[in-house]
Write a structure and sequence with these properties.
This protein is mostly helical. The chain has a domain at 9-58. It is built from four helices and no strands. It is elongated and about 95 Å long.
């Protein structure tokens, strides 16, 4: 006989996952903890999709990509060392 779960169990699962993700647990750790408590992979996947959708709504909209510019200094005169000058004199 298949066990009937209460109507709001997915909502409770979503709250549990959100709370523990905010505490720093990884999705993988939560998945294995819930699977060991009797939840199915399908239930976890359904709940995690809801969590991802909710988290995506909370993110600020993406703005334009920043433009990266590279500023270089103008080339400077290469000074020759004392030994290089002597080498030039004798060559």
């Amino acid at each position: 006989m298949v066990e009937q779960k209460p109507q709001g169990y997915i909502a409770n699962l979503v709250r549990y996952i959100r709370k523990n993700l905010s505490k720093g647990y990884t999705e993988e750790a939560l998945k294995w903890a819930l699977l060991s408590q009797g939840y199915t992979r399908a239930e976890f996947e359904k709940a995690i999709k809801i969590v991802h959708a909710d988290m995506a709504k909370e993110l600020p909209p993406v703005q334009e990509k920043p433009v990266i510019t590279i500023e270089t200094e103008p080339p400077q005169e290469v000074s020759t060392s004392f030994w290089q000058k002597i080498k030039l004199w004798f060559s």
